[in-house]
Amino acid sequence: MSGACALAADERLAAYDFGPDHPFQAGRLAAGMSLLRAAGVLDDDDLLAFEPAADADLELVHDRDYLDALTRFSAPGAAAADPAEAARWGLVGDNRPFPGMAEAARLVAGATTAALDAVAGGALAHVFAPVAGLHHAQRRRAVGFCVVNDVAVAIARCTTAWPLRVLYVDLDAHHGDGVQAAFYDDPRVCTVSLHETGRYLFPGSGEVHELGRPPGVGRSVNLPLEPRTGDDGFLAAFDAVVEPLAAAFRPDVLVTQNGCDGHADDPLSDLDLSLRGLRALARRLHRLAHRHCQGRWVATGGGGYDLDRVVPRAWALLWAELSGRRLPARMTADWLESRRRQRRRAAAPGSREREERNQRTVRAVRRLVLPPAVRVVYPLAGRDGGAGRLPAWEPRAGEHLAPGGPLVLRDRSPASLLRRLEVDPGIHAFVREAAQEREVLARIAEEPNGEVVVAHTPEGVVVGYVAVLDPEPGTRFASLPGLLEVGAVEVAAGWRRGGVAGALLRFAVEPDPFEDLILIASGLAWHWDLEQSGLSATAYRRVLRRVFEVAGFEALETDEPEIAYHPANLFVARVGSRVPPARRAAFTSRLVRGGHREVR
Amino acid sequence: MTARPVTVAPDATVAAARSAMRRGRFRHLPVVAGAELVGVVAHSDLEVSPGAPVEAAESLGDRPLTEVMSIDPVTVWPDEPVEVAARLLVDHAIGCLPVVADEGLVGILTESDLFSVLLALLGGGEPSSRITLVLPDLPGALGQAMTVIGGLGVNLLSVVTEPGPEPGTRGVVLRAGTINAAPVVAALVAAGFPATGPGRPEPHDR
User: Fold this and answer.
1) Domain harbouring A575, CATH code
2) How many domains does chain A divide into?
3) Residue A144 and residue A119 share a domain
4) CA A381 to CA A371: how far, in whole Å?
5) Which of A144, A269, A599 sits opposite B198 (nearest CB)?
6) ipTM value for the complex
């Protein structure tokens, strides 16, 4: 084994082969490996050894009777003898059984499992498993060329054996439905799928509101993008969601499905990506692994069915990125050149509408899955704040005597001061490092209407803060004048239950200008620190509500979709005493929009 | 429909009906005396109009259901086709239909039940590709299009037709159980049927 990277593939994987007239065939592996060798970027000692996956691992994701059926129908002629029974397990059409299918599928799962084991255990930094990423396979059904869900098996093993938190990013043109389903209620696995919308494309799922089931709500993330989205739109969606999500989720390891079937020359989808776009995505994932996952990264090949211009080249670019090897410049220059066709398409009629739809999708996903403070640190490009909503006043200081000791409360904290203060390590709802948390606060303070109120010890260690900022553009209340959002209230783990949050909020809204403003705050249950606090969502909601009520906020009913999505979600508002009745009424009228007709 | 639904007695209070709805997470409640259906209350019957004083909501809670329920509601038989039930909901602008047999109330059918039917009819919820067609509204047109697909060995999970965008046309929505649907769309187009789907995602792109 050379260096810290490996390729989890060898010629045994050619056995996963639905035949020469089928898109998923042995030719994919042959084409990919021969290009890597011809390009001089792959040696024999780059190859990771692996064995067929063990039953115990497969059963983490698949039912025993399904695995038995796989074995049964791997015998030559078995499916022809009982086509109805084979169809019951999805072993028909796209997934017609071939001799040796069960063993080949086990081998695929073995490669991915060995890859993730090596990375999780620290033996390797990055591994690429090209014949892997069979993301459609379900618990008891073969779907979309995927007989065994190798990624789900490897992730399930990783979360149970180590246990580690896994960020799974799926770039295949098709929704990563099987992996999403396997971890739909698991808060330790965050699945993100960027794909062509299911309006026409298989499998049809992957809508924005598929967010997960308790206790994993908010950990299933979907970005359904328009056909003909192209590189620029795809990268913009990736940047707006994936990196900030990684910052908020704090994963230990990154697992990706780098399906290249979104390429314009690939026959199965219409995303119109190019090799340039796929390479840019690989770079971003590599950077993300180092920034947020201590470098731990397993990439799987996923879909991709053009054996000439797409699959081998996309794999070579991904392997080069992951391993740090350099491909011959002559080769890549040729591959990356042909963007003309894509540009022509991008300028075609309907491109504006397409772009707007994608932007709407991105904004909705950000609101649903990113805590407001994280949205500030990772703003959307081209965002303009409604300046001047928050007038200036003289910075104040106050005191609060907490059980842990006296605290100084300070408002209008300038970014320069925040960057000088220490941050208690118990504050980490959003990012892993306290130093990053300090940067979050400074960035909020730099926003046009940003206001940060901190509670710090006499020694200058921040143990709590309240952040006030502009509401996210495009939300229901954002266009109302004189309205700001309490984006975050956080108290360090060791300082909770000492009235710090309530004292901070009370202190924060004391200044006279707040009497001219409406302040709102949304509590989405899946953003709450339930693990640390040990509270149920309902109990947490009760505590949060009381904290806000002490500062003059009122809990309000609203059918705003994100709030209405989960019964534990909380919406509170504080309407200043000088807010004119007309503005108050405009706000109230937006709380409930849906007029639902019932029985007469 | 929901069989053996939760019911309330006519002398129960509005507050009791509210809490039954909250507990069961539903919005319609049959009112039953003995085995006999005497009325229906909807969530909206138990609310005061927005902006009314808080006391109004509280005093309404003490009233018996007989004062707020719809009496003599529209009902259906258990063996009624689903389109008949849908028609009744639309024509009467109502949200539920108690299902009544000889022995009395046996179930309740609501808007949500019809959404489940729609989902099943359109093949949503199963991994599949969606293909839409516009055909002349003539005998044999649908059959010819299906023959093209039949030759490709693709399983269809759903075929639904509806009035087309122009007079004299029929729209067809298909759900094909394959990840590789572009060849199906291409074959339909080659055979002269304007199809939209994977490989040709622009509507009526000819």
Assistant:
1) 3.40.630.30
2) 2
3) yes
4) 18
5) A269
6) 0.80
CATH superfamily, domain at B2-118: CBS-domain (3.10.580.10)
Look at residue A596 and tell me if it is in a domain.
Answer: no
143-182 in B: which are within 8 Å (CB) of A? 153-155, 175, 177-182
Neighbour-count burial for B37-69, b at 16+ CB within 10 Å, e otherwise: bbbbbbbbbbeeeeeeeeeebeebbeeebeebb
At residue B53, what are phi and psi to the nearest 5 degrees?
A: -65, 155
Which CATH superfamily is B123-196 part of? Answer: ACT domain (3.30.70.260)
Residues A184 and A63 in one domain: yes
Chain B residues inside the 8 Å CB shell of A203: 127-128, 179
Closest CA to B202 of A354, A188, A114: A354
pLDDT digits (tens, 9 = 90+) for B4-49: 999 999 999 999 999 999 888 899 999 999 888 999 999 888 887 6
| Cα of B154 to nearest chain A Cα, Å | 7
Question: Residue A223: which CATH number?
Answer: 3.40.800.20
Residues of chain A whose beta carbon is less than 8 angstroms from a beta carbon of chain B are: 23, 92-94, 136, 143-145, 174, 177, 198-205, 227-228, 267-270, 350, 592, 596-600
Amino acid A232: pLDDT? 93
Q: In terms of domains, do A398 and A350 share one?
A: no
Residue range of the domain that includes A573: 382-591
Compute the distance between CA of residue A88 and CA of residue A101 in angstroms, rounded to an integer.
17
Measured CA to CA in angstroms, residue B10 lies from A128, A414, B71, B76, B109 at distances of 68, 64, 11, 21, 20
Q: What is the pLDDT of residues A107-140, one digit of tens each?
A: 999 999 999 999 999 999 999 999 999 999 999 9
DSSP single-letter state for residue B197: B
Enter the tokens of residue A13.
């994987």
SS3 of residue A599 by DSSP = coil
